[in-house]
UniProtKB/TrEMBL annotation:
Organism for this UniProt entry: Pseudomonas triclosanedens
First and last residue of the signal peptide: none
This protein's name: Glutathione S-transferase
Domain of life: Bacteria
CDD domains assigned: GST_N_2
InterPro entries named among the record's database cross-references: Glutathione-S-Trfase_C-like, Glutathione-S-Trfase_C_sf, Glutathione_S-Trfase, Glutathione_S-Trfase_N, Thioredoxin-like_sf
Entry-linked Pfam families: GST_C_2, GST_N
Amino acid sequence: MLRILGRASSINVRKVLWTCVELDLPYEREDWGSGFRSTASAEFLALNPNAMVPVIVDGDFVLWESNAICSYLANRYPRHDLLPAAPRERALVEQWMGWQATELNNAWRYAFMARVRNSPEHTDQAAIVLSEAQWNRCMRLLDRQLERTGAFVSGQRFSLADIVLGLSVNRWRLTPMQRPELPAVNAYFERLGERAGFRLHGANGEP
């Protein structure tokens, strides 16, 4: 059976858990990370030298990085609705997954660590304000994309891009900060709420 290593409250672990719900895929999850078994242990570092969750173990195959894991699972079973086979449609899904992992994640990191994690290393007010502004800029960009499609991030069909970005939208909504009114993002959040995987692992009270 597929093993998923990582605490269930981690946003990146929740991407993988939601993907498993969409695939109706059984798994065993093990608690690793903050508050649980240390990812700095030799046992964990042998699986992921970055000491980060999630990691999956699928038979003799080990994989880390949450977006790569989601893509692997959608290919493994396979689910071309989640990750299209056609090159152009697939590229659009991967484009938005890449944007989430780079531009969007880099924008919110400082503000989230300050506002939600109360990190003593993230108390620079100017840096917090800048991070919030960059985060909101990214969310406005997402709002424009959703306004164009009228449905999901990469087009009319739900895909892996919506799993990774749906969790990001949830985090943005739950972080105590000033946010612009984004009607298309709000409508998108409601659409995602129709999916069991999002209710379990997205809009489940965890930012």
